[in-house]
């Protein structure tokens, strides 16, 4: 922070990345991946059966909602130069809601390390135990591999995060071989993709504002437990990190999977999309949510 390009779009959500498809703005990688899979139904990343989709979903919940990523973030080495920057540590404290004092990070490390070590053991002794190359026994990595691998691969590439006497190829050979295969596939995929265009923030903002909408919203489920009506003025914010940054607008979509807000920016309507889980939806006016 600050992020003037997002602010120019009227987006208060502070985590990155965000994804814009036309005037639809998607917040949180969970909903981004889901929408991309909907747009490209023949993607080789998609799970092909309900059983495989269940494994994929389980791994998404395990890494994000069950605390694996939170514990991974607590293993950031205390000798990182950024931790000597008071602006950075203040920003991280605002984001996470917890202290980023070096002593506090060091105090949290043993518990975090125990949790991550348990995660490595789980992958080694269950998911990968039969020698499969990929999580769903496919020929190439799928979204299930992405959902499972990212916090562990991130830590493995972060110098000083993992004590090699406890977590290495020696203790978890199947996991480390899997990470190596994944990164090889990733580099090959990057080499084959079209080169993406890079836009300055103001150009990207104008492109978004001048576009159409990418999709219709899910509508507001009248049987949803929150009992909101279409058009209710609400605010939406994550419940785990970045909780102080709220987006406000009219509710135009609400179901089991998604929340959609309509906001006005520079005279244009934008729709902000969030996953349902991990986000709170609150009416701005008491009683405005009740059905009559």
Automatic annotation (TrEMBL):
Q: Which SUPFAM superfamilies does this chain map to?
A: GST C-terminal domain-like
What is the native source organism of this protein?
Answer: Knufia peltigerae
Cite the InterPro entries for this sequence. Answer: DUF7962, Glutathione-S-Trfase_C_sf
DUF7962 domain location: 71-190
Listed name of the protein: DUF7962 domain-containing protein
Lineage top rank: taxon:
Eukaryota
